[in-house]
Design a protein that fits this description.
Structural class of chain A: mainly beta
Strand order of the largest sheet of chain B: 1-9-8-3-4
Distance between the termini of chain A: 38 Å
Distance between the termini of chain B: 37 Å
Number of strands of chain A: 11
Order of helices and strands of chain A: EEEEEEEEEEE
Largest sheet of chain B: 5 strands, mixed
Radius of gyration of chain B: 13 Å
Oligomer: heterodimer
Largest interface: A-B, 22 and 21 residues
């Protein structure tokens, strides 16, 4: 069966510090991968998605970037965090290729920028 | 993706069936209806999806009207653990776009 991991679970970082959140998927190959963010009391906002290694689509211009160095690894980064980057960051995967598939979410990382 | 409309909140008595409605009147022929839920402080959990026919799994049933303009998610015997925000999404491809959903409160 497939499993999605995210770490860390919680993170407190000062404004201006860098960020690296990692997501890995097990038990599948060539997945589509996604990063969402949920600000406190708000809905889920799609940040990035990837259909393959090195292929990243950005949905919202902002202070964040994403990379996919390996097939089942997706990394969310920032060079300098802003207070507005605080939120609940969720990684998700779906089977790759043609067709319509459900997405499966990881446990999330709760980021607080102070 | 077709726009979906859901009531912002609903209450349900524990042990009773929870029927969550969703309107997707502009859905196109290749768009599926997905249901997810998000329990507080957790990632969204996939519940069920369908295209035309009604669907049932161990979690819920999905009833889609014949014209596909609306659907209902049914939790047959709601428990306190079913308290969550429920999202209805009409989409023909990923990534899925989440709206505000319905906050379901199951009351003892």
């Amino acid at each position: 069966s497939q499993t999605i991991h995210q770490w860390p679970a919680t993170l407190v970082q000062p404004v201006g510090s860098p960020l690296s959140l990692e997501c890995t998927v097990e038990g599948t190959s060539n997945p589509n991968l996604y990063w969402y963010r949920q600000a406190a009391g708000r809905g889920l906002q799609l940040l990035f998605y990837s259909v393959g290694i090195g292929q990243i689509s950005s949905e919202v211009p902002q202070n964040l970037s994403a990379s996919r160095p390996q097939d089942r690894q997706f990394i969310l980064s920032s060079k300098k965090l802003l207070l507005s980057d605080s939120g609940f960051y969720l990684c998700a995967w779906s089977p790759g290729g043609q067709g319509t598939y459900e997405q499966y979410f990881g446990p999330g990382t709760r980021l607080t920028v102070t | 993706d077709a726009k979906t409309t859901q009531p912002p909140s609903m209450d349900c008595a524990e042990g009773r069936a929870a029927n969550l409605p969703c309107n997707h009147s502009t859905i196109s022929g290749n768009e599926y209806v997905y249901w997810y839920r998000q329990i507080h402080s957790q990632g969204p959990q996939y519940i069920i999806h369908g295209l035309k026919n009604n669907e049932t799994n161990e979690m819920a049933s999905l009833i889609i009207t014949e014209d596909r303009k609306s659907s209902t998610l049914i939790l047959p015997h709601a428990t306190l653990r079913d308290t969550a925000v429920y999202y209805c999404i009409a989409s023909g491809n990923t990534p899925l776009v989440f709206g505000k959903g319905t906050r379901l409160s199951v009351i003892a």
